[in-house]
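Q: Purine nucleoside phosphorylase, please. Structure only.
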Amino acid sequence: MRLTEKQLQESTEYLKSKGFDNPEIGIVLGTGLGKLADEIENPVVAHYNHIPFFPLATVEFHTGKLLFGTFEGKKVVVMQGRFHLYEGYDLMDVTYPIRVMHRLGIQKLFISNAAGAINLDFKKGDMMLIEDHINLQGGSPLAFKNVAEFGDRFVDMAEPYDADMGKKLMTIAKKENISLRKGVYASVVGPQLETRAEYRMLKTLGADAVGMSTVPEVIVANHLRLPIIAVSVLTDECDPDNLQAVNIQEIIEIAEKTEPKMVKLFRELIKEI
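A: Structure for Purine nucleoside phosphorylase:
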């Protein structure tokens, strides 16, 4: 596994030639959370299969395109569809778009995902501001030979999520009367859902929610010194003593139903920063 300057340069040059002009904010949209892209003004679209060295989104409910345009007066680049280890990609593939968005010029990164609630005080349809995370994906996107060519090998993770943006988002949620929890996100490989014993383990480890994404992107964003905000939409309740079989379609529907609140939070935060 090797990352090269040539790859990043070709990807960036292609997008610039399409009109991706110095975006200020990068946004990664998770499962069932693609509608924010519909609100981008004067969008320019680049499909992943046209961008040099980009992987392809293989999950049926991830659309697989990068958009550039204006959102609340700020130039943004939006990933509509992300990549996961469970699709057969490696951590370099999963995080490559973050490096490209950084090369395009983003100064802040917004991430969303759909996750299961481990904390039983949290309910379906709640949102959670990620304050910290547990990496259970069995690897690091920084574990490659020439990583030092792109930043420090040993990246500090004492505060992986930007506290200032987090405080602003909590204030906005209170003002808008939107329920926004705070907690720890555990990232697993998937694609299978967890067993009862695994949910108990995650709770013991201190996780409030579990999902299959986000952490690799956050590690790379810290490598690039990009301030990050991340929000989970909680789509199912992971109570090992009363565990129900998960309906993926229901998860998508809950994410879509909650999405307008997430868009509202992101919109108001973008206005402020």
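A: Brief note, in case it's useful. The longest helix spans residues 248-272.
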